[in-house]
Structure formats: C-alpha cells, structure tokens
Amino acid sequence: MNIRRFYCEKITQPQTILAGTEAHHLASVLRLQKGGQVELFDGKGSVASATIMDLNNRQVLLDVIEQKTIPQRTSGRLILAVSIAKTDRFDWLVEKCTELGIDRLCPVLFERTVKTAAGPQTIQRWHRLAVSAVKQSGRNFLPVIDSPSHLNDILDKLTTEFPSADVLLGSPSPQALPVIKYPFAGKDLIVFVGPEGGLTDKEDALLLKCGAKHVRLTETILRVETAALAFASILTAHRDNQ
C-alpha cells in the first residue's frame, strides 16, 4: 500500500495536529478517511507513522504510532550558492535540486545577476516547492534555503559555518578541472554557480582568494539552472554511492 507523506512542522506525541495546506490536501484533495495510515516528517529528521483520528479541511488530528529521529549529516554536505535566475527557472532549480538531495541553497546576487523580486513571498514559495519535492522524493530533510544575498555576505557566512569545506567555482574554461575528476573525500562542498553573463574579475579574484577551485561540467556554456542541476546530480550521486 502506498503510504502518503505529509509535512508536519512539529510532530508531538501521543497525538499531533496537521493544519493549513497539508490538512487541506489530505482531507479535501486526497479525501483520506478516518483510520487511514499516513507518514509525517518535520523536515529536520523526525519521521512518524500515524493514524487519522478526526479531520476537516482545516486540520487533521492524528494518533502517532511510531516516531524515529534520523541523524543529520555532518559531513559530505552539498551547499549550492547559485545566481538567481528568472522566477520560473529558479523555482524549477529549487524543486529539482531538493529532489537530488542538496543540503543548502544560497541564492546569490552577483554583479551581473538579472535582478528579480525575492521578498518574503518568494522565500515562502521556495519553501513550499522544497516541501513538495521532499514529499515526492522520500527525503526526510528539507534543504536550508537562504534569503538572497550579495557574494561578499554569502562568502563570509558559508566559510564561517563550513570552515573545512572545499569551495568549487563553475567555469567554462578548458583549463578548469572536469568536476568528475575532482578528488572527492567525503568533505563538505560549497559550489558557486555564477550568472550567465559570467563573473566579474573582482568576483573571480574574491572567490579564488577564499580557496575556490575552478571546475567545469561540459564544453558548452550552460544556463544557471542547468549548471546547478548538473552539479547537484554529479555530486550527490558520488556522495550517496560511496
């Protein structure tokens, strides 16, 4: 039997309440009934099997049958720092990179980034897309999605939080090391993907000063979301199959 999964920000015992859009989806869209079995996850590693006890389209009362906590990854984390792209393209990036298993997504405002709106409503939309992708893919952890920031701020934040991480910078240069030849060693990786107009000399120098290494994907120049997805695919596949 296919057990449906629902995002519950706070799972409590012996009973918990599912509210908002997740309750509406359970009761009004899927039309699940009392006595039905579901799986809950909080996006932080807590997963529970539960039974529907009472429901309406605003909230669902569930009996928690069994709950377990999955330890969070402390190494081999993949952090993508990506230039913001136009709305639908970046939405797609959030969804697909979440499915693949990235741990953090940092939208970056490079000097040549095409400016797009990225206020609170945009951040909320990205969160909803990530929740949907986690439900579909069977992941138990939501990626951290930062608010858009300028390169200097992102660099300061990430190098402080991940002091031992390797820093990679996507580059179309034939002299750049092919990413598939990069010597992975189970370390955290911070991967920067610049805008389609490229980085300025100043930005490139700043990243190299922080120890970034140029790596390339293909001989072609890729759009932002294509490059991000390619990096996520290659690096998570390598990490998850060691």
Report the sheet with the most strands, covering strand number, pairing sense and barrel closure: 8 strands, parallel
- What value does the average pLDDT take? 93
How many discrete structural domains?
2
CATH C-level class of the largest domain is: Alpha Beta
CATH architecture of the largest domain: 3-Layer(aba) Sandwich
Q: In sequence order, what are the helices and strands, one letter per element?
A: EEHEEEEHEHEEHEEEHEH
Give helix % range. Answer: 25-40%
SS content category: alpha/beta
Distance between the termini: 31 Å
Strand content: 25-35%
Under CATH, the topology of the largest domain is which? Answer: Alpha/beta knot
Instruction: Give the count of helical stretches.
Output: 6
Annotated CATH homologous superfamily of the largest domain: SPOUT methyltransferase, trefoil knot domain
Task: Count all strands and give the number.
Answer: 13
Give unreliable regions as ranges.
Answer: none
Tell me, what's the shape?
A: elongated
Radius of gyration: 20 Å
